[in-house]
Amino acid sequence: MAEAITIARPYANAAFAIAQEKGELKAWSDLLAVLAQCVADPEMQSIITSPAVSDEQIVSLMADIAGETMTKDARNFLSLLAENNRLMLLTHITVLFEALRAEAEKSMTADVISARTLTPEQEGKISAALKQRLGRDITLNASVDESLLGGAIIRAGDLVIDGSALGKLNRLASAIN
Q1: Distance of CA 97 to CAs 16, 94, 131, Å?
Q2: Which of 115, 108, 58 is closest to 87 using CA atoms?
């Protein structure tokens, strides 16, 4: 898997450079998401890997699927991927592109797992505290895990804050032993 990420990185950097130069980060983000979903489909994978289907036919098919989001630059990018047999890397390219976009836009997505559903006020406080600590705009993905008993676990990039009752009990048990 590390090899695929390594191979995908220059392509993601190139796509990001084009998107940033044209001021189309959001459009490219949407396009790459569609293309990544496309190559994740087993039927599409068999078309991409089939020697009976030309690169141009694959690019045309994917351009048709992408619809109006497909620009000339994006089509050229897709053709380059097809020529180099890198279409199957679109999922990795999309992940890397999103990381570059988040860095450029000073934004981040944080996952919050709580014992109960968070109120909008609680989400706002968590988001504001993370923004102050990390210096980025924060988008929260909130989910519920009742096994935590109480509190929450927050994951934002490399930062993990375990404020769950279960986590505190486990730390207490470790300290006693």
Answers
A1: 6, 5, 22
A2: 58
CA-angle at 105, arms to 102 and 106, nearest 5°: 80
Percentages helix, strand, coil for the chain, rounded to the nearest 5? 70, 15, 20
The answer to whether the beta carbons of residues 26 and 50 sit under 8 Å apart is no
Give me the sign of the Cα torsion angle 88, 78, 39, 92: positive
Q: Has this prediction a pTM greater than 0.85?
A: no
Report the C-alpha gap between 10 and 163 in whole angstroms.
38
pLDDT in tens, the chain (177 residues): 558 889 999 999 999 999 999 989 999 999 999 999 999 999 999 999 999 999 999 999 999 998 888 999 999 999 999 999 999 999 999 999 998 998 888 888 889 999 899 999 999 999 998 889 888 888 899 999 988 888 889 998 778 888 888 888 888 888 898
Closest by CA to 75, choosing from 61, 92, 96, is: 61
